[in-house]
Design goal:
The complex is a heterodimer. Chain A has 19 helices and two strands. By secondary structure, chain A is mostly helical. Chain B is of the alpha+beta class. Chain B folds into three domains: 87 residues, no CATH class; 147 residues, Immunoglobulin-like (Sandwich); 132 residues, Cytochrome Bc1 Complex, Chain D, domain 2. Chain B contains nine helices and 18 strands. The interface between A and B is large, with 107 and 106 residues.
Chain lengths: 598, 403
């Protein structure tokens, strides 16, 4: 996408990161900014912090599961030759840990475990993975990739950020007050009856309710931005695929999130005013809640994965310097997934619903597999005859193809009714959705952060360091979660603090894997900190990308572009735009560039 | 590709690795495993093809300095139609086979023996057609570790769970219902589970396998090797604190042994014996009888920082003050548990109104009385003996006179 006068220098304008002198002035500037880039960066740090909190909870969960809880009865023969019996409980690892820290209070071992896994689920879903890519990378790059100065409604964007903060405080308050033990799904009637004299469940549900508004406003903003603010010359099919993916995501967010809002409100009404909606003791229906909940939460699975798919399309094309294969197929399959995602919620409740409904939802669920498979085929075909460089973003892109394929294929026996009756609510499901959510979204997010890190902060990161982190994440992730498929098929249920001895070996391997995975994440953290402190200055276009963000400086100036860019070529036209023997790193291409090299 | 019906004969090595050493217990379960293996082979095929291509491209087309990329088409309609249609038609096959297997797994013949399954936090209770419940319990796993010098041994075990007996080669229909929150009744060896919901019955049917000479279990009390097959039962829907301890053993036994048990269990025992059965079935997941703390206070004579426990001892209340633990206290605590909350405990218990009748409550009180040295009627000092068996009899009289 060449611009008319990209070389006309206006370099006196500072980057968006430069601010007024004085720490208070800087904080005020960031807190009141309507710049989508600053808001994106604030979201990035916030969601990464939430990822850290959720990840710590995950390590706690795995720590408890190293061994089962058991009563040990020791029989000893004492000096007099009498038999002495003593009993003790072993394997309550979290209780021992928290007692060591003086934090266990009156809680039993299983109660601590239940709070830990609920904390992990709720933080990861509501505060990390739903906002993760759209709110951070989406906020930063959606306007830039469209060639716009900002999103359509910059003030609304700032409002979403504050709603996110406000909602998160409720969640954190609930955790600090002692945590919630309902699981992140808040199934009734458990969630309306547990913990009856405390407000923590209400607080946590309120947090999810408020965070929903943040999603809706961000989604609305992005839809309007994509419709109205594309640069001159950029038609719908000249948009980068990341934009298509975020666009499809935003539609789901705007349409589905109100349903969870209403559902959570009904839940709060039931708890506070004792209006019987879901609790059978008050005349309600508990399965109704599950329908409401999954009518939102299934589409939201695609809110989590679609932006990740968008990132992968960018990573593979840029680092293979290859036109994406089947652009329209990928773009339309994003919309197809968004559409079908509203029709498949029932597969979360196969074991609680009638036979006819189960059969219908099974059939519809298989439909989602088709556009997803098409995307994977297209990505692999994109690599054909490319020029592939194995740097960190590309390695994450390829890792995504590996782990996401496993995640997608293991969805098949869950959609098949006869096999799902066994696998439902087992560790097989746990492994499956971690392969999709972590092996899909988190891996793509990590790849995307590395890909756009030089653009966002104007600094390069240490490639060898990041590659070590990447390798640890790959090994740790697969060791942790591949074992869990076997646990599931052999009969291990989800959300168990305790288990029969037969499962211990696999659980131990899984826990060791989680330590490798955690180590990999800390290596990445160290690499990022090193880059911010001592990183080399990044060029405007380190990878040779052709989308508009690589025309900005690194980091971009406050209004992104010196002049409104005019789009002359597609986002992946490496073959036609870049002259032979011309290094795309030297992009933007000067009108005389071709001549100059010959 | 393995067809599902073939897999029922003898599971292969990979199938054993995936599903563990325990074989599927029924024909539909084996069919489900076969279908799973078919999907697995299908997935492995596509995964190998995709990853093979990816690694091949990764190496073949790695970046070389000064070598530009070769042009290649940006799309290919025929190829794209091919890779849309082929997976779609395979998915259709999976859907249809999955539908068939599903109907076989949950439908039971009309002459099946109906066993009622009741879930409550955190117990499974099975009621047989003659109204009997199982009085037998065992841990799901247990091992004895001898110390090196032979001077001591430790027994490592989980909690005791009920044993549900079923006769071999019989169609059984479970009619399931929950007393509180949603549970899910999963028997992994039958490859089937269904949610157990408070305001409706859910059902599924199984056909128990024929026993072979290789099917033996060790009886939990006698230690005898007997003909039969033990299976795990788990709760698969998260239901709170002790969710992971909501389990049972399903034991398939010969028909005549099963008939004998049904006869024996139909006979009612002494009040505190009946009370102990109810304790193990419904109360033991929250109340210990060795002074330990769980979700609820212990029942036996004991004490801790929050006060004393057991029949006849005063209960320190969370709201302040104390109350005597007498028959009325226990009756109220069963029917209206939140009326008096013991200090140090949360109001977690739900009312057993409607689940326990007057006889059951009397039996439980009689059992609680046997756990304490305080005589059943402390204010009638001197009347009656101190021995445990007499204490039980007295309890019955006392409870009878109060009601």
């Amino acid at each position: 996408m060449s611009t008319l006068d990209a070389h006309a220098g206006h370099h006196e304008e500072g980057s968006y990161l430069s601010g007024p002198p004085g720490i208070m002035a800087k904080i005020w500037q960031w807190a009141t900014t309507v710049d989508h880039k600053k808001i994106g960066v604030m979201y990035l740090f916030a969601v990464l912090f939430m990822f850290f909190v959720g990840g710590m909870a995950a390590l706690l969960v795995r720590y408890e599961l190293i061994d089962p809880m058991r009563d040990v009865m020791v029989q000893t023969v004492d000096a007099n030759g009498d038999l002495v019996e003593t009993t003790a409980t072993q394997g309550e690892n979290l209780k021992d840990l928290f007692q060591g820290l003086g934090m266990a209070g009156d809680l039993t071992g299983t109660q601590i475990y239940n709070r830990a896994f609920t904390l992990h689920g709720a933080v990861m879903v509501f505060m990390f993975i739903v906002p993760s890519i759209p709110a951070s990378l989406g906020n930063f790059f959606l306007p830039v990739m469209l060639g716009a100065k900002d999103v359509a409604f910059p003030r609304l964007n700032l409002l979403s950020w504050y709603i996110y903060l406000f909602g998160s405080t409720f969640g954190i308050l609930s955790i600090l007050m002692g945590g919630v033990d309902t699981g992140w799904t808040f199934y009734t009637p458990y969630s309306t009856t547990t913990d009856a004299d405390h407000w923590r469940v209400v607080l946590m549900v309120t947090a999810a309710f408020i965070l929903g508004f943040s999603s809706i406003l961000t989604g609305l903003n992005f839809v309007v931005t994509v419709h109205k603010l594309r640069a001159p010359g950029m038609g719908w099919f000249d948009m980068p695929l990341f934009i298509w993916a975020v666009y499809a995501t935003s539609i789901i967010q705007v349409l589905a999130t109100p349903v969870i809002g209403i559902t959570l409100l009904l839940l709060i009404f039931e708890r506070i005013m004792n209006i019987g909606i879901f609790d059978p003791a008050m005349g309600g229906d508990p399965v109704l809640y599950q329908h409401f909940f999954w009518f939102y939460s299934h589409p939201v699975v695609y809110v989590m994965i679609l932006p990740a798919m968008g990132i992968i399309s960018e990573l593979l094309a840029v680092h293979a310097r290859k036109h994406i294969f089947g652009y329209r197929a990928i773009a339309f399959s994003s919309l197809g997934i968004a559409g079908v995602s509203f029709l498949v919620w029932g597969h979360h409740i196969f074991t609680a619903m009638g036979e006819l409904a189960a059969v219908l939802f099974s059939g519809l669920t298989f439909l989602v597999a088709i556009p997803t498979a098409i995307k994977v085929f297209n990505w692999i075909a994109t690599l054909y005859k490319g020029s592939i460089v194995l740097n960190t973003p590309m390695c994450y892109g390829l890792m995504f193809l590996f782990t996401f394929s496993i995640g997608g294929l293991t969805g098949l026996p869950l959609a098949t009714l006869a096999t799902d009756l066994h696998l439902h609510d087992s560790y097989f499901v746990v492994a499956h959705f971690h392969y999709v959510m972590m092996g899909g979204t988190v891996i793509a997010f990590l790849g995307g952060i590395h890909h756009w890190w030089p653009k966002m902060f104007g600094k390069m990161y240490s490639e060898p360091g990041a590659l070590i982190g990447m390798a640890l994440v790959f090994i740790g992730f697969n060791v942790t979660f591949f074992t869990q498929f076997f646990l599931g098929t052999q009969g291990m249920p989800r959300r168990y603090a305790n288990y029969v001895d037969e499962f211990q070996f696999l659980h131990q391997i899984s826990t060791y894997g989680s330590w490798i995975l955690g180590l990999g994440m800390f290596v990445h953290l160290a690499v990022f900190i090193h880059s911010l402190v001592a990183g080399e200055k990044a060029p405007a276009n380190p990878w040779g990308g052709l989308t508009l963000e690589w025309e900005c400086e690194s980091p971009p100036i406050e209004h992104n572009f010196h002049h409104e860019p005019i789009v002359k070529h597609g986002p992946y036209d490496f073959e036609t735009t870049v002259p032979p023997h011309w290094d795309p790193k030297d992009y933007p291409i000067h009108p005389d560039a071709g001549k100059a090299t010959h | 590709m393995m067809m599902p019906t073939l897999a029922t004969a003898q599971p292969g090595a990979l199938e054993k690795l995936i599903f563990g050493p325990k074989l599927p217990a029924s024909e539909p379960a084996a069919m489900a495993d076969g279908l799973f293996m078919m999907i697995t082979w299908f997935s492995v095929f596509f995964f190998v093809v995709l990853m093979g291509l990816m690694f091949y491209f990764m190496i073949k087309y790695r970046r070389r300095e000064g070598v530009p990329t070769e042009p290649s088409p940006h799309h290919n309609t025929l190829l794209e139609i091919f890779w849309t249609v082929v997976p779609s038609s395979s998915l259709l096959v999976m859907f249809v086979l999955g539908f068939q297997g599903y109907t076989q797994q949950i439908v039971s013949p009309s002459d099946a023996m109906e066993v009622r399954i009741e879930g409550n936090k955190w117990n499974w209770i099975a009621t047989y057609p003659n109204g009997a419940n199982s009085p037998e319990f065992q841990p799901l796993s247990k091992r004895v570790v001898e110390s090196a010098d032979g001077m001591s041994s430790s027994t490592i075990k989980g909690r005791d769970y009920p044993i549900f007996y079923l006769p071999e080669n019989t169609s059984v229909k479970f009619r399931m219902n929950s007393q509180d929150v949603i549970h899910s009744f999963w028997i992994p060896e039958f490859r089937v589970k269904r949610d157990v919901i408070p305001n409706r019955y859910t059902t599924y049917g199984i056909k128990t396998p024929r026993l072979t000479a290789a099917d033996t279990y060790t009886h939990q009390d006698t230690g005898e090797e007997m003909l039969g097959r033990d299976m795990w039962v788990f709760c698969a829907e998260y239901c709170g604190d002790e969710h992971s301890r909501m389990a049972a053993t399903l034991r398939i036994v010969p028909q005549d042994y099963f008939n004998q048990l049904m006869e024996d269990w139909g006979v009612t025992g002494l009040p505190w014996e009946e009370g102990e059965k109810i304790y193990k079935m419904m109360c033991a997941s929250c109340h210990l009888i060795d002074g330990g703390k769980l979700v609820g206070p212990p029942w036996n004579e004991s004490s801790d920082a929050n006060g004393q426990y057991g029949w006849g001892y005063p209960a320190s209340l969370a709201s302040g003050g104390t109350v005597e633990r007498d028959a009325n206290y226990y009756r109220e605590s069963i029917l209206d548990p939140n009326a008096k909350i013991v200090k140090g405990y949360a109001p977690q218990m739900q009312s057993y109104q409607g689940q326990l009748d007057e006889d059951d409550i009397n039996n439980i009180i009689a059992y609680i009385q046997t756990l304490s040295e305080v005589p059943p009627n402390p204010h009638l000092e001197g009347e009656g003996g101190e021995s445990e068996s007499e204490a039980g009899n007295q309890a019955e009289e006392a409870a009878g006179s109060e009601s």
